[in-house]
């Protein structure tokens, strides 16, 4: 009997109701394992009802020089089929040029470029984001060059698309080493 319950248990773990749009939508959370360790998770933000993310923008602080404190990636903005969604963001940098999937396509998976903790040296944590569209097109953000690309997240189930996000951002350290955005989770909606 226990073996026949396993697929149902997995379904319960992967598909959860999340409050965030008008009412409750069934979503799946996709994430990566290489996010930075600093900061707190902010509130989840979602595209307007019945819309999906079709593109994104990054808020990036350019490299400031060897003896200055760099933060690199500070924010991610989802461009939805109507409107946008921006989760918790750091204070530094400016918004990049928007990148979008082709007509009627949506974002379905991602990976992060993250610099591992460097001890006494300046840390930047997340530097860049790369997303995959539902037609397989890959869009790489104009983020920083530090760190390495991690593994790609799981993909949203077929017919679903990314509809929201939640970010982990370190607040300014008042004289300490600042990092900005460290990690992100995306929500897939049906």
TrEMBL record:
It comes from the Eukaryota. Residues 1-20 form the signal peptide. GO terms for cellular component: extracellular space. SUPFAM superfamilies: Vitelline membrane outer protein-I (VMO-I). The keyword Signal applies. Keywords: Signal. This is Vitelline membrane outer layer 1 homolog.
């Amino acid at each position: 009997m226990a073996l026949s319950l396993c697929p149902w248990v997995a379904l319960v773990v992967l598909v959860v109701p999340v409050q965030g749009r008008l009412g409750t939508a069934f979503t799946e959370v996709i994430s990566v394992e290489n996010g930075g360790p600093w900061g707190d998770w902010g509130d989840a933000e979602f595209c307007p009802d019945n819309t999906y993310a079709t593109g994104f923008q990054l808020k990036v602080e350019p490299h400031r020089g060897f003896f200055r404190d760099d933060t690199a990636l500070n924010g991610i903005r989802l461009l939805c089929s109507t409107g946008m969604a921006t989760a918790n963001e750091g204070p530094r940098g400016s918004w990049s040029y928007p990148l979008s999937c082709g007509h009627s396509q949506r974002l379905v998976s991602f990976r992060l470029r993250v610099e591992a903790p460097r001890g006494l040296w300046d840390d930047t944590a997340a530097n860049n984001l790369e997303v995959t569209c539902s037609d397989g097109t890959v869009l790489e953000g104009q983020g920083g060059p530090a760190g390495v690309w991690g593994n790609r997240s799981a993909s949203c189930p077929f017919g679903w698309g990314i509809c929201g996000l939640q970010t982990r951002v370190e607040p300014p350290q008042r004289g300490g080493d600042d990092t900005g955005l460290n990690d992100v989770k995306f929500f897939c909606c049906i």
